Amino acid sequence: MLNGKLTTVSSFEITKYEITNSQYSKFLNAEKTGKDGIYNGIQIINVSSEDLQVEYKNEKWATRQGKENCPMVMVNYYGAVEYSNWIGGKLPNVPEWSYAAKGGNKSKNYIYAGGNNLDEVGWYRGNCEGRSHNVGEKKPNELGIFDMSGNAWEWCLNDTLKSENDFCLHMGGSWFPEEQPSQLSARYGNTPTHFSNSVGFRVIFPVKKTE
After folding, report:
1. CA atoms of 147 and 86, how far apart (whole Å)
2. How far apart are CA 109 and CA 106, in angstroms?
3. CA–CA separation, 135 and 149 (whole Å)
4. Which letter does DSSP use for residue 126 in this model?
5. N vs C: which end of the chain shows fewer Cβ within 10 Å?
6. DSSP 3-state assignment of 36?
């Protein structure tokens, strides 16, 4: 149930972890994205930010040392969509994201993804030491999915997006704020061109029905 309305989601698979800097670097290199961070005519990563954890060296993208398995941040909504398309998936919409974060049919109705104590399941301002952390270091939720509360906010699909002035939700909270944004009921977001050192994403893949 979402916002008081019954919502049905089709079967899907979802990445166990948030997309990492290492994974995103492979996409940038495979698509021969230049040092300007422009892909298909759109700026998808913030190359001018010191918080970008990938760098362009010797005409190739690489992760900064020690940041290989941290969630990819300083990527906007468009950059998240392009990566998702590249690997044959898509961003989860809000009902899909919420279903997975709450533990699907194994849900125990926790406040956060995987428990009622955020220190156990997620990185946030109170325990993160002012930075993101490697994915998968905290306890997973009921479906074995990590970091759906805390570490990095996660872009969700906007099926009606028409312009750069539209609003795109990102869910799950991050390392930067206190506990409330990491609650599964919380709703935050920004424009699709927004870059942040605490916003990343994960990908879902539709499950094809078999006869």
Report:
1. 23
2. 9
3. 12
4. T
5. C
6. coil
pLDDT in tens, 142-195: 999 999 999 999 999 999 999 999 999 999 999 999 999 999 999 999 999 999
**Which among 132, 119, 114 is positioned nearest to 52, based on CA atoms?**
132
Cβ-proximal residues to 179 (8 Å cutoff; 6+ apart), any chain = 118, 124, 126, 173
Residue 45 CA to residue 42 CA, distance in Å, equals: 9
The DSSP symbol for 133 reads -
Q: Which sign does the torsion angle of CA 201, 183, 164, 48 carry?
A: negative
Tokens of 169: 């939700």
pTM of the model: 0.94
Q: Quick one: how far is CA 46 from the chain centroid? A: 16
Of 141, 173, 139, which Cα lies nearest the Cα of 71?
A: 173
